Amino acid sequence: MDGLEPGRNIQIQSYKHNGQLHRIWDTTTILKGTNNRVIGANDKTLVTESDGRTWITREPAICFFHVKYWFNIIGMLRNDGIHYYCNISSPFVFEDGAVKYIDYDLDVKVFPDMTYTLLDEDEYELHKEQMNYPKVLDKILKNNVEHLLHWIRQRKGPFSPEFVDQWYELFLTYRS
Which parts of the sequence belong to the DUF402 domain (predicted)? Predict the structure, then answer.
């Protein structure tokens, strides 16, 4: 896909259902980009929140986006192992040099031992009311939570033992 060549730096932009910009990751290096999926990596990248606050990520991360699934997955390499943060979101689009998606509040945090916690259910319910999520969207999102949890339990895709390590090794070649 044009613009998703390996080694290229792009932004990641997260929006809310109402179109408001939610968060921007300034620099992510493309490791693999196709019409269906994007795998990228970043480390100590600037993140800008919708209110203008900024912060810097603390550790290397491998990011997985797919056009079929209503979630994206970030594998963070920490001293005690790989931690995952999974956003329940729209499938990504790539435009204007950025991977873009709608964040639907629900998140799954996965620990190195592959236990997990579903987060932000209250925030999801609040935004579902405020932004009038259609019933069909609510069903799609809840089905994708189940699909994501299945991947975690089965150690599929980005949760397979070697996935993050292999992509991180490739990322290191772009940094040297």
Answer: 18-156
C-alpha distances (whole Å) from 82 to each of 6, 63, 114, 128 are: 23, 13, 9, 31
Tens digits of residue pLDDT in 142-157: 999 999 999 999 999 9
Residue 105 known to bind ligand: yes
| pLDDT one-digit tens code per residue, 13-64 | 999 999 999 999 999 999 999 999 999 999 999 999 999 999 999 999 999 9
Quick check: 71 and 87 in contact, CB under 8 A? Answer: yes
Structure tokens belonging to residue 68: 């079929």
Instruction: Point out the catalytic residue in the list 8, 23, 37, 175.
Output: 23
Give, in order, the Cα–Cα distances in Å from 136 to each of 5, 17, 126, 128, 133. Answer: 35, 14, 17, 12, 8
Tell me the domain boundaries of the chain.
8-167
- Is 26 annotated as belonging to a binding site? no
Q: Which CATH architecture has domain 8-167?
A: Beta Barrel (2.40)
Q: Is 23 a catalytic residue?
A: yes
